[in-house]
Design brief:
mainly alpha
Length: about 100
């Protein structure tokens, strides 16, 4: 794929995301999942700057972040901390000869 084709595809994807975000929260769960994935894996600083310049998109993003992204971050933090404590407990048990 040429760089022009990738650029056009990226522009089309960005417009789709902005249109979907502008409709938040009145969108389907699949669209919410798509927005979350885009913000977590695809969005760059330029994309975020563009969203923050638009008052409607900014308002929708703040709502999405509060409703979805922050909640997911807390869940991930909990599971990461739990796994870390489990690994630390197992390492301590191994060092003390308990396992």
């Amino acid at each position: 794929m040429s760089s022009n084709a990738r650029r056009a595809q990226g522009e089309q994807r960005r417009r789709y995301i902005e249109t979907t975000l502008a409709s938040y929260p009145d969108i389907e769960p699949d669209a919410i999942s798509e927005l979350i994935e885009w913000f977590e894996k695809e969005a760059g600083i330029g994309d975020m700057a563009r969203i923050m310049r638009s008052s409607d998109l900014k308002r929708a993003y703040i709502s999405l972040k509060a409703d979805q992204l922050d909640r997911l971050q807390g869940i991930r933090l909990f599971w990461s901390a739990s796994l870390g404590m489990l690994v630390a407990a197992a390492a301590t048990a191994l060092m003390l000869g308990g396992i």
